[in-house]
Design goal:
By secondary structure, the chain is mostly helical. Among the domains are: 154 residues, Methane Monooxygenase Hydroxylase, Chain G, domain 1 (Up-down Bundle); 60 residues, Alpha-Beta Plaits, CATH 3.30.70.1590. The chain contains 13 helices and six strands. It has a three-stranded antiparallel beta sheet with strand order 1-2-3, covered by helices on one side. It has a three-stranded antiparallel beta sheet with strand order 4-6-5. α1 packs parallel to α10. The radius of gyration is 34 Å and the shape is elongated. GO terms for molecular function: actin filament binding; ATP binding; microfilament motor activity. Belongs to the TRAFAC class myosin-kinesin ATPase superfamily. Myosin family. This is MYO1B protein.
Length: 348
């Protein structure tokens, strides 16, 4: 119930992960239709970049202001930090406190003076500022790092590389918030170079009991995991897309004109294939480099036809092989019979 600095940076990381999820799924999904020249009705979805900016902006972000409070001379307390937040973030639509101008909770006793509230993507979270400055200022000073680096134990020495005299840095050690922000930036950079697959886990109930579903809890998780926006984009768009070459290669046996070899552009071959199969025009669209199929049922139909065709081809191959094998055996027996008959007549 009491969220402090630790929960704040954890929620910040969750916001960044949600942001990359939005960019790699929803945003990229819609941008692909534009790139491929597909007619598309834009689906509005919430982009939490504004919340990430509220936390990590180098000038007006909460982490930047926390660092500034930790580094400035004079008396620094959690209350002075909250006052600074109230001055800088007062008009931000996702920040609320008893002193903020945009807050609807100025007379709400559920929001104490020592707290502020952030409207995260997953919902509103209230944070207690008590301990923010001390926890952010929990630095490992240079002399301690050097002492640990001089330890005889190799593991301890490896854990404190900044204590190496050859790598000595006279700058003030980074604050806990700065270190976490740098770690999150490295994680985001790493994820953007990959092709991630997402597994969304939903708790059906708080008791960890089988066959018990709390509808309110499940709906809440579906909302803040971004699944509704994802489903809306998918339903409004196309369920399947594939480059023309592999699509033609996979389904060319379904059409006499494209089987066994198609001489011409792959797109033209796919057009001939789909026209031959009689698939309704509203079920697919031709992009610049890909074929887009709207309904999964159409794809399932293609797979079923392909499976049946493969069985027919396997039966045809088996029939031809058996015929060849029987004919070869027959010709061999016929040849042997002629040789035996000729030798018998010679001596008869």
């Amino acid at each position: 119930q009491d969220n402090s600095f630790e929960q704040f940076i954890i929620n910040y990381c969750n916001e960044k992960l949600q942001q990359i999820f939005i960019e790699l799924t929803l945003k990229e999904e819609q941008e692909e239709y534009i790139r491929e020249g597909i007619e598309w009705t834009h689906i509005e979805y919430f982009n939490n970049a504004i919340i990430c900016d509220l936390i990590e902006n180098n000038q007006t972000g909460i982490l930047a202001m926390l660092d500034e409070e930790c580094l400035r001379p004079g008396t620094v307390t959690d209350d002075t930090f909250l006052e600074k937040l109230n001055q800088v973030c007062a008009t931000h639509q996702h920040f609320e406190s008893r002193m903020s101008k945009c807050s609807r909770f100025l007379n709400d006793t559920s929001l104490p003076h020592s707290c502020f509230r952030i409207q995260h993507y997953a919902g509103k979270v209230m944070y207690q500022v008590e301990g923010f400055v001390d926890k952010n200022n929990d630095l490992l000073y240079r002399d301690l790092s050097q002492a640990m680096w001089k330890a005889n134990h190799s593991l301890i020495k490896a854990l404190f590389p900044e204590g190496n005299p050859a790598k000595i840095n006279l700058k003030r050690p980074p604050t806990a918030g700065s270190q976490f922000k740098a770690s999150v930036a490295t994680l985001m950079k790493n994820l953007q170079t990959k092709n991630p697959n997402y597994i969304r886990c939903i708790k059906p109930n708080d008791k960890k009991a089988a066959h018990v579903f709390n509808e309110a809890l499940v709906c809440h998780q579906i909302r803040y995991l971004g699944l509704l926006e994802n489903v809306r984009v998918r339903r409004a768009g196309y369920a399947f897309r594939q480059l023309y070459e592999p699509c033609l290669e996979r389904y060319k046996m379904l059409c006499k004109q494209t089987w066994p070899h198609w001489k011409g552009p792959a797109r033209a071959g796919v057009e001939v294939l789909f026209n031959e199969l009689g698939i309704p025009e509203e079920e697919f669209s031709f992009g610049r480099s890909k074929i887009f199929i709207r309904n999964p049922r159409t794809l399932f139909k293609l797979e079923d036809l392909r499976k049946q065709r493969l069985e027919d081809l396997a039966t045809l191959i088996e029939k031809i092989y058996r015929g060849w094998k029987c004919r070869t055996r027959f010709l061999l027996m016929k040849k042997c019979q002629i040789v035996i008959a000729s030798w018998y007549r010679r001596y008869a």
